[in-house]
Amino acid sequence: MILHMRKSILVLSLIFISLKTFSWGFYAHRLINFQAVFLLPPEMLAFFKPHIAYLREHAVDPDRRRYMVAGEGPRHFIDLDHYKTDSLPSGWKSALERFPEDSLQQHGILPWWLQTMQYRLTKAFREKEPDKILKLAADIGHYIGDGHVPLHACSNYDGQFTNQRGIHALWESALPELLAEDQWQLYTSRAAYWQQPALFFWQFIRESGKAVDTVLECERNLAATFPPDTRYSFMERNGKLQKQITPAFAMAYHEAMNELTERRLKQSIQAVASSWYTAWVDAGQPDLKVLLKDSLQPEVAEKVAQLNLLWLKEN
Ligand SMILES: [Zn+2]
Q: CA 66, 58, 238: angle at the middle one, nearest 5?
């Protein structure tokens, strides 16, 4: 029994480590969904703001599912470098005509999965299903965030082919955790309407693919000038020594990449808000206020209507 328990604890802690390692860190995913809410038009804000804690907390559900749901893993990445062409089929059906499905799954299906999620979110808005809207909005926020991470767009996702293991967590967990709150400016433009969501999905994933060399090269060059003891420090947490990156190395890496991580985080936030907004518009702009459990007080509803007029005028 004890042995069994210890085994489960071991499995759990391994899962925890893997989760920490292979997604925008939990911190960044939560930040992205949270900040995206403030870029929405007032009519949407009236529904999304009261549920902001849900959207933040559930920003990491897709990563939690990776270890429980078969087929979840490939939805978080695509190995663009595996394909020797820049012209991959935009839609899933045409992708299936060109490549066997098991091969597509093996190399990641993120750009196609995003289109499915956008369709489902639009449908949930159209059907005015508040629980589904929130769940799908939180989920697509996660996948859009992943699509902005360069190391989610290549097969060398943790520097394993270039002797740079650990770079994944450095880029998407350590940098935002150390720098975002005090150093980064995440203010960005409001949600935009996408005529063709698939184009945007492919665009930011292609940008991620193009940034992979910068991510790897800058770390490699810096590591050569930072002796290991100035790159890492050890901190005791729960009676265990944990290796972590030093703020000096994090800052130097961030600057060497010309603030790429900060820019990608900011673009993720804007893209998530735009995806939610586009789904709502495509669903015919349903009145979300009626979906609130306690419907809005008349004076608050009036304020929302006024703010909305301003939003429309400024657009
Ligand atoms: Zn993920």
A: 75
142: tokens are 């996660």
**Cα dist from 165 to 52, 88, 107, 220, whole Å:** 35, 29, 20, 11
CATH code, 2-314: 1.10.575.10
The alpha carbon of 291 and the centre of ligand 1 are apart by a number of angstroms equal to 29
Give me the residue spans of the domains in the chain.
2-314
Q: How far is the CA of 168 from the centre of ligand 1 (A)?
A: 12
What pLDDT digit, counting tens, does each position of 40-86 carry? 999 999 999 999 999 999 999 999 998 889 899 999 999 999 998 88
Sign of CA dihedral 193, 143, 34, 254: negative
CA 63 to centroid of ligand 1, rounded, Å: 5
Place of tokens 């996408």: 194
Q: What share of the chain is helix, strand, coil (3-state, %, to 5)?
A: 70, 5, 25
Tokens of 41: 């038009």
